[in-house]
Structures are given as C-alpha cells and as structure tokens.
Amino acid sequence: MRRDTVCNNLNYSIKMSDARSKKDDDLTKKSSIVKDETLLDLQSRYKMDEQIWTASKRGFPFNIPLWFVIALALGTPIAASFLCFESGNAYLWKAYLFTLCISVVAYFVTDKAIEQFKESLEKNGLFGKDLNKAGVRESKPPVPEGLGIVIAIVFLMVTILGQVLLDFTQAKLVEYNAGLLATCMAVLLGFADDVVDLKWRHKLIVPTIATFPLLVAYNGVTSVVVPRFLQPFLGSIVNLGILYHIYMGMLAVFCTNSINIYAGINGIEAGQSFVIGCFIFLHNVIEIYLGTSPQIVSQHIFSLTIIIPFIMVTLALIKHNKFPSKVFVGDTFCYFAGMTFAMVGILGHFTKTMLLFFLPQIFNFVLSMPQIFGIIHCPRHRLPKFNDKTYRLECVHNHFTNINAFLRIFGPTNEQQSCNFLLMVQIISCSGALFLRYVVGGWMY
Ligand code: UD1
Ligand code: MG
Fold it and tell me: Which sequence ranges are marked TM in the entry (predicted)?
C-alpha cells in the first residue's frame, strides 16, 4: 500500500515536472517567436543582420515598447470614462457605448480591408521604398503607399451610421455634414497628393477651401474670453467676428500639414495622430464629468462620437504601419487626420485646447519654417541618415525637423526606438497641455 502511494506520488511529480518544463519550453518558444517577428521581417525583406540589429538597441529610456504607449494613451480615457460618467445619464451612455462597440467593429473591418487593398494599391503603382532600411533603394521591396484611403472610408461609413442611429438635433446635423464634407475634401486632396505629388500652394489652398463648409455651418460664438491680466485693456470678452473664421480656416491648414511634415520614420504619422486622438477623448471625458453646462456636455458627447472611431481605425493602421512598416499611411492619412482634428476642435468648441495637444507639431513646424517658406533649400525628403553599419538613425544637420533635433540631442538611435520615444514625448507633452488647460488656465481666466 505504502509503496504504491510513494510510486504514485513519484509518478505524479515526474508528470508535473514534465508538464512544467514543457510549459516553460512553450513559453520560451512563444516569447522567442514574438521577439523575433520584427527581426525575421527585417531579415527577409531587407536582409538585415541579427547581430547589428540587436546591438542597435539602446537601454532605458529608449526601450519603450509600442504596446505600452498604446495602452497608456488609450487606457487612460477609457478608464476615466467608466469612473467618471454619471450612471443615470442614459443619453450619454447610449451614445458612448454605441460608439465604442461600432468602433471596435471598425477596427477589425479596417484591419481586414488594409490586408486586402494593400496589394491592389501596390499593383496600381502606389508604393514607396522604405528609406530607413538596409540595402540599395532599387533592390528594396516596394511598400504599398496611401493606405489612409482605406481607413478614411471605414471612418466615414461609421460616422455616417452614427448620424443615422444617434439622436442629433437638426442644427447639429448641419454642422456634422459640413464637417464630414471637409474631411472628404481633405481625403481627396491627400489621395491626389499620393497619386501625383502636389505643389505646396495646393497643399495650402485646398485645405483652406475644404474648411469653408465647416465655417459657414459653424453657429457657435466668435468671441474669446480675455485672460485676466489683459482684461483692464480689452474687457472680459472680445468678439473677433470674421477674424475667428480666419483663425479656424488657418487651424485646418495647420493641422493637416503639420502632421504630414512630422513624418518619415515608420509609425510616427499614425502614432502621433493616435496619441492626439486619445487626448481629445480624455479631454471630452473630463469636460463631460465637469458638466459646466448642458450645451458644453452635448458638444463633448458629439466630439466623442467622432474621435473614438478615428482612434480605432488609426489603431488598425498602426498595426500594419508600425516598424518595420508593411504599408505606408500616405498623405491621405495625414490630411484626413488633421482635418478630423480641426473638425472636432471647431464643432466641439475647444480649438485652443486642441492646439495645445499639437505642441510637438508646432515645434516641428517652427523648426521647419525656413525650409517650408523657401528661405533655406528644402530637399524632397528631410529624413535623418540611416547608418547601415549600426542600423541607427543619425542627425542630418541641415534638415530642420523634430526627428533630427531628437537625434542631435540624444544621439543615434534605431528607427523603432526613435519612433516609440517620440510618441512618449507626445504623451508627456499632451499631459502637459492638460495641465496648462486645467491648472494654469484656471489662474489666467
Ligand atoms: C514629408 C516631408 C519630408 C519627409 C516625408 C516622409 C516636409 C516638408 N516634407 O513630405 O521631408 O521626408 O514627408 O514621409 O517636411 N517614407 C519612409 N519611411 C516612412 C514613411 C515614409 O521611408 O516611415 C518615405 C517612403 O519613401 C514614402 C515617402 O517617404 O514613399 C512618402 O513621402 P510623402 O508622404 O510623399 O512625402 P511628403 O509628405 O511630401
Ligand atoms: Mg506625407
């Protein structure tokens, strides 16, 4: 009896330890597969060397994983919404949950659509060569370009469905349609830019005209609250009238172009737009929670119904555009994202806060001004230099951009880590923007 029990116990523990070691093996196998996916892709498409790639990676704070950036940016507003939204507000919950569900569906639809359309775009000549990878340009595999068109179409379908199924007032619908028209124009311009490279004057004129429907439909105030220290000279409120409309028009031109020129490393265009979108989401949640007036709450609920689908379709794009990019987003995406931000900012009446979320883009724009306005020669690409001995990006001194400024200050960094670091900077700067808006703004107004 006793021998039997001992034997049974022995067999049991051998089985257990076998199972455990099999599990450990599985885990290591799984983690090495996950770890090597990027490397395998780099090896198969660009013949990159494993040792150089491994050596190109830097330690903290450059080793931030992309999943962390995404989870932090999107997790915060979602957690805040479930903590802060009043449980009795049926209209809010209906609009919010409907938008969340349809946006999750939109994510999967976009993911599938990108898979399907990327080949046809490439076959029809819409592709680019990844400039920051090893190998000579001619022998590099083509990367489908302009996938922004796919996500913009899914986004428009979702928002149109929202118009049908959510109860917006007639006045709001007029504004909403104008906003969608402006977005469509931006997508059209972006796609034209991807197919035939447009001149700078087109990039300035078309977004300006594209905002006209939005500006004529805008029925909000055109006055601004004056900061306390200027009130003795200007009074507490100043009506800017037509100047306010000009400001809104310029905002659209700025938003569309500023994302397009903060570009050139895998994942940065879609990543920055995703982070800004998440912070607009968070700002909406805070404003709904504060509930200053029913009108403000309804403006921010409206903004939620646009920005959440935008965030989710962009997330699907990131999946394919993240380092090493399997698709490029194209100017279509940059203009689409910029116009969507301008639209929610204008129709949600928070353009100043929205501009605060654009601090890195403003910085990049100011740095770029001498080249954009032709004072200094502006080459076709203002990318950093890819060093094929180290697989790191290096600063090019006469390309005045954020990315080059980062490499100049922090030293050569590989493309993946540069992008993730800059996205983290975007998160920190957007958090600073919220501090300025709610703390410093409170002292000034
Ligand atoms: C803007 C920038 C330009 C930058 C380019 C990169 C200005 C005034 N213009 O031009 O300096 O080089 O974006 O997008 O600042 N590409 C990559 N890796 C990426 C993304 C793009 O190699 O991660 C390359 C590909 O060859 C792709 C091309 O850039 O085909 C797309 O460039 P495009 O968006 O047409 O450039 P612009 O928007 O005109
Ligand atoms: Mg571009």
Answer: 66-85, 91-110, 147-166, 178-196, 208-230, 242-262, 274-291, 297-318, 327-348, 354-376, 421-440
pLDDT digits (tens, 9 = 90+) for 388-402: 999 999 999 999 999
Q: Cβ(331) to ligand 1 under 6 A? A: yes
- Tally Cβ neighbours within 10 Å of residue 433: 20
Locate the domains of the chain by residue range: 57-349
Sequence-distant (6+) residues with CB within 8 A of 114 are 147, 150, 151, 316, 317, 319, 320, 327
**Residue given tokens 């619908």 in the structure block:** 173
- Residues 6 or more apart whose CB falls under 8 angstroms from that of 257 comprise 203, 204, 207, 334, 338, 365
Cα separation, 297 vs 4, whole angstroms: 73
Query: Distance, CA 11 to ligand 1 centroid (Å)?
Result: 63
**pTM here?**
0.92
Q: Which helix (H) or strand (E) holds 376?
A: none
Ligand 1: distance of its center to the CA of 381 in Å?
6
Q: CA 364, CA 386: separation in Å to the nearest integer?
A: 20
- From the CB of residue 330, how many other CB atoms can be counted at a distance below 10 Å? 27
Are 93 and 341 a contacting pair, CB within 8 Å?
no
| pLDDT tens column, 112-139 | 999 999 999 999 999 999 999 999 999 9
Count of residues in the chain: 445
Helix (H, G, I), strand (E, B), or coil: what is residue 381? Answer: coil
The residue whose CA is least distant from atom 5 of ligand 1 is 264
Q: State which ligand 1 atom lies nearest to the alpha carbon of 325.
A: 23
- Geometric angle at alpha carbon 290, from 284 and 291, rounded to 5°: 90
Distance CA 201, CA 209 (A): 12
Ion ligand 2 neighbours (CB, 5 A) are 260, 331
Q: Work out which ligand 1 atom sits closest to the CA atom of 129.
A: 26
CB 284 within 8 Å of CB 300: yes
Per-residue burial over 162-180, b = 16 or more CB atoms within 10 Å of its CB, e = otherwise: beeebebeeebebbbebbb
